[in-house]
Protein: DNA repair protein RAD51 homolog 4 isoform X2
Organism: Bombus impatiens
Amino acid sequence: MKILKDWHILQDYRSRLNLQDIIEIKQNILKRFGGMIRNALDLFEMEQNDIIPTNLSSLDNLLKGGLYYGQIYEICGVSSSGKTQLCFAIATNIALKTNNIVRYIDTKRDFCGSRIEQILLKQDFSKQVIDETMERIKVCCVYSIHQLFKVLCLLTVSLKEEGGECRTRIIIIDSLPGIIFKFCKDKKITVALNQLANMCHYIAKEFRLSIIIVNLITQWDVVSEEGPSTSSNENYSVTPTLGKYWLHIPNTRLLLEKIELRKRKISIWNSCQLEANLTCTLTINDSGISCP
C-alpha cells in the first residue's frame, strides 16, 4: 500500500496537468511532427505536377514525361557533342513558364545570354516574354569545386525563402570534370564527389526539384589478341568521366552523340527507373533544339 501511495505522489509531482491538457499537447505534437495522411489520388496528382517537361517532345517521351523531382540527371558526351546547347534549350523551355526558376551554374565561363535570346527570338516571342524568361534563368559562375560547394550551400538558404507558386524547378551544373580534376588531387577526388553527391541528393529531394549535371566520356582502346584496336567505334570502350565512385550517383545517365552536323542522338545509358538503351534524335538549330 505504501508503494502504491508513493507512486501516486510521484505521478502528481511529475505532472500536474489534467487529462484534457495532456490530450491537447499530444494532438499538437502529432500535428507538428507526425506523419500526414493523404489520399492516394492526391499523392498521384502531386507526383504528376512535379514532373518538369523539357518541351522537347522526343526527350520527354524518352524520360516518360520529363524530369522528375528528387532526381539527378547526367548528360554525357564527347567535347562539342552539343551538351551545353541541350542545356540552353532545356533551361529556356522550362523558364518560359511563369512560375519556373532555373538555376544555371557555369563552370566553363561559356554561358551565352545572347544564345538564349536568339532561341526565343527565333520562336517569335515578344520582347517582354524574352526579358521575363531570361530574368528567370539565374546564372552563377564558379571556378573551383570549393566555390561550387559554397554556391550550393547558399542556394539551400535561398530555396528555403522561396514562397508561393514561383520557385526553382531545376539546377544545371555545366560542367563537372573541369573543376574536379583541376583543383582536386587524386586522393581527394572521391571525397569531393561524395560531398557533392550528398549535397545534390539533399537539395533535389528537400526542395522537390531536378538537377542536371554535364559530364564528359572517356574512350579506351579495347585490346584484343591481335593487339591494340583501330579507330573504329566498335573497338572503343566508353565510360563516363569522374571514375568508378560517380558511376552510380546519377539516377539517370544520358549519352549524347553526334550523328551529323546538326543531328544528335540521345540514349538512356543507365537509369534506376527507365529502360536502358532507348534512344531519340534531336536537331540543333538557331531556334534551339527541334524534334523530328
